[in-house]
């Protein structure tokens, strides 16, 4: 009697599955941040430890938790211009969600009226974008999945003025970027847009439209480096 033997998945299949899982985690995380930002709230502590994965029949399987550092820009809740609540392993170079010379919002309806102006001019939500980019980097590079390594990465980024392209050239030799480089460097391009100085950083809403979240077509794991502009300086 013939016995069916299930073939072990190939390295390519395992890699594709890994990216698919991380893609969903990041999509749910960014979608959660989008909802917070639409309500005028900045999370300020986005990292893998604050992403809860649960079994659900429908809807998002991943949810952001721990809003202890979150700041509500509409009413000033948990916001002090002189205080920065952050995890230095994942935090952006500005460290504060808004410049320190921005006064605390006034009480009551005046704060609500002024919050759209503050949001549009100072872009506090981009703080979360950077943290999300660092989270993506950690999930996609196996050597970075120990949280303590992210402090080293953040320190290295400071050396190159948070130019992630320069960081990869200077320090990337010991890291495996194969997951980030799939599909013509889609994951790496998203990291590049999020882990950057504030003036060049993509918003959560923009990141959700990135090609990294497109379904992966089997047989197109990576493109030629020469055909990608990812590793070229703007």
SSE order in H/E notation?
HEEEEHHHHHH
- Mean model confidence by pLDDT: 86
Arrangement of strands in the largest sheet: 1-4
Shape: globular
In total, how many beta strands?
4
Number of distinct helices: 7
Estimated radius of gyration: 19 Å
Q: Which range does the strand content fall in?
A: under 5%
| Category from helices, strands and their pairing | mainly alpha
As a percent range, the share of helical residues equals: 40-55%
Low-pLDDT runs of 5+ residues are 223-234
Span between N and C termini? Answer: 63 Å
For the biggest sheet, the summary is: 2 strands, antiparallel
Structure report:
The chain is mostly helical and 234 residues long. The protein has helices at 11-38, 109-122, 126-140, 148-159, 164-171, 182-194, 204-208; strands spanning 41-42, 51-53, 62-64, 71-72. The strands form two sheets. The chain has a two-stranded antiparallel ribbon. It has a two-stranded antiparallel ribbon with strand order 2-3. A hairpin with an 8-residue loop joins strand 2 (51-53) and strand 3 (62-64). Helix 1 packs antiparallel against helix 3 and helix 3 runs antiparallel to helix 6. Mean pLDDT is 86; it is low at 223-234.
Quick rundown:
The protein is mainly alpha-helical and 234 residues long.
Which tags fit this structure?
single chain; two-stranded antiparallel sheet; 41% helix; mainly alpha; disordered C terminus; 234 residues
Protein topology:
Elements: H1 11-38, E1 41-42, E2 51-53, E3 62-64, E4 71-72, H2 109-122, H3 126-140, H4 148-159, H5 164-171, H6 182-194, H7 204-208
Antiparallel strand pairs: 1-4, 2-3
Helix pairs in contact: 1-3, 3-6
């Amino acid at each position: 009697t013939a016995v069916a033997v299930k073939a072990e998945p190939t390295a390519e299949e395992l890699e594709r599955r890994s990216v698919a899982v991380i893609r969903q985690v990041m999509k749910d995380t960014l979608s959660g941040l989008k909802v917070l930002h639409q309500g005028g709230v900045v999370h300020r502590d986005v990292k893998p430890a604050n992403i809860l994965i649960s079994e659900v029949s429908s809807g998002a399987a991943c949810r952001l938790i721990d809003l202890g550092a979150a700041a509500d820009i509409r009413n000033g809740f948990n916001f002090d211009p002189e205080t920065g609540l952050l995890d230095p392993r994942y935090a952006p170079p500005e460290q504060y969600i808004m410049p320190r010379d921005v006064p605390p919002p006034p009480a009551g309806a005046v704060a609500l009226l002024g919050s759209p102006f503050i949001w549009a001019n100072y872009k506090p939500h981009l703080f979360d974008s950077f943290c999300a980019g660092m989270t993506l980097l950690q999930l996609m590079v196996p050597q970075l999945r120990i949280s303590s390594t992210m402090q080293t990465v953040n320190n290295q980024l400071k050396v190159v003025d948070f130019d992630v392209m320069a960081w990869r050239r200077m320090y990337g030799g010991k890291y495996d970027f194969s997951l980030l480089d799939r599909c013509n460097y889609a994951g790496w391009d998203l990291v590049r847009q999020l882990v950057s100085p504030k003036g060049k950083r993509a918003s959560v809403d923009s990141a959700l439209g990135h090609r990294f979240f497109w379904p992966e077509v089997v047989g197109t794991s990576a493109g030629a480096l020469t055909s990608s502009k990812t590793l070229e300086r703007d």
